[in-house]
Amino acid sequence: MSTSAAEETLARDRALLERSGTAERVAEILRQRITEGVFPPGSRLSEPSISAALGVSRNTLRESFQLLAHERLAVHELNRGVFVRELTARDIADLYVMRRVTECGALRRAAELSTVDLRAVAQAVRRGRAAADEGDWQAVGTASIAFHQALGDLAGSERVSTTMRQVLAETRLFFVLAENTRAFFEPFLERHERILRDLERGRFGPAETALEKYLRDAEKQLLTAYDRRES
């Protein structure tokens, strides 16, 4: 194929690339809003309103919905539309298996590195404590998500960080079970601070042990809340 023909082919591909890129950016926005609880589990993702709000075409939005469905954050129901996914007890258990493998593994990897930047971890801890002082428990939940993302980022791996973003977005779907209450979130603030202190002192082993127990306890609490909600 000649140079000019190749350029013409790439020129035709440009529109596809731009549309794909836009859909990915829209999906990123919606993923973030789901993570923040703006769109709770079971809520309908209205195509007309979201399309108008973001200034994107329906086709682009549908592509972004497909990306979210692939990430298990949204489901398409025939003749009804697209909804934020509601998770089952099996989903909770499976996702926490993934979280223990990924987050604890990230700390083990961080222990092998010559330098570790803990600023994002510390910032998330401060944000969580400040939100708790204001009684904003939904914001505490958001800070907790940021804390765990920062732990995953310590591995220094783009793939680990990407996996954490997806897993934590799913995790946020569980928080509706806790109803953003002080009783659920406050005990974890102290655990965040303890893990941070261990990391600051280079005590990666104890930090990992504390994180492992933290995740198992969180899973147990969410399963209890799920059973109570279903009964």
TrEMBL record:
Listed PANTHER family: GNTR FAMILY REGULATORY PROTEIN, TRANSCRIPTIONAL REGULATOR, GNTR FAMILY
Q: Which InterPro entries does this one have?
A: GntR_C, TF_FadR/GntR_C, Tscrpt_reg_HTH_GntR, WH-like_DNA-bd_sf, WH_DNA-bd_sf
Name a Pfam family for this protein.
FCD
Molecular function as annotated in GO: DNA binding; DNA-binding transcription factor activity
* Keyword Transport found: no
Q: Which PROSITE patterns match?
A: HTH_GNTR (PS50949)
Q: Which residues cross the membrane?
A: none
Name-wise, this protein is GntR family transcriptional regulator
The residue ranges of the HTH gntR-type domain are: 20-87
